[in-house]
Design goal:
Blueprint lengths: L1 E2 L1 E2 L3 H19 L1 H14 L4 H4 L6 H22 L5 H7 L6 E9 L5 E11 L3 E8 L4 E11 L7 E10 L10 E10 L2 E8 L6 E9 L2
Length: 212
């Protein structure tokens, strides 16, 4: 997966709240963590030589406790919490994980419909978009991905891709790059695409989330 862009500074705000929560939890649990740390030193007395150089044991324990809380909260949020329905409504970042199947209508050769599957893997900061076209034996993989959530009811997924064909004998299937501009409407994705082929090809995409 690759980092994907958001059109607003939402991640910056979430990061600040995670840090603040980590500090608050660290302060609340300081007496417990301090006691556990003291017992650890008693069990391994050689560590006290390093600890004795500190003016106050909290200088070590508090940042360490905060770092642990930060790592746990951040991991939980990025991999699980953000995709819960309540937070999706609050934050406006859609969960696009899954297989989206449908049709790409291309201007190539006077216009043709091509079956297409878009597989999306996503967490809070990273995403991959992998397209398969079984009838042409080609695949596309996103190089740069952006998510526009300025309109939460109709977010947009935009990505530049590299297409590679397993059927390299066909001239029109030679490797090329292109761009998808897609609008998300619930369990449906619709939009347009264009390529850098010569002559250029473009068309429309209409996909539905496969829940099976």
């Amino acid at each position: 997966m690759k980092p994907y862009g958001l059109n607003i500074d939402l991640r910056y705000k979430i990061e600040h709240r995670i840090v603040l929560l980590s500090i608050m939890l660290s302060a609340f649990f300081y007496p417990i963590s301090n006691g556990l740390w003291s017992k650890f030193i008693e069990k391994y007395p050689f560590i006290s030589e390093y600890i004795s150089r500190l003016d106050f044991i909290g200088i070590l324990v508090s940042p360490l406790t905060m770092a642990i809380f930060y790592a746990v909260i951040k991991c939980f949020f990025e991999n699980f919490l953000w995709r819960k329905s309540l937070l999706i409504r609050i934050l406006g970042v859609p969960d696009l994980n899954g297989k989206w199947t449908g049709t790409l209508h291309s201007t190539f050769n006077g216009g043709k419909d091509v079956p297409m599957t878009l597989t999306i893997k996503q967490d809070w900061e990273k995403m991959s978009c992998y397209c398969e076209f079984p009838n042409t034996g080609s695949v596309s993989e996103a190089l740069v991905i952006n998510l526009d959530i300025s309109n939460p009811s109709r977010p947009k997924l935009m990505f530049k891709y590299q297409n590679q064909s397993y059927n390299s004998t066909e001239t029109f299937l030679q490797p090329h790059t292109g761009y998808n501009d897609l609008t998300i409407e619930g369990d449906r994705i619709k939009g347009i695409y264009f390529t850098n082929r010569t002559p250029q090809t473009n068309g429309t995409i209409d996909l539905t989330l496969n829940n099976s």
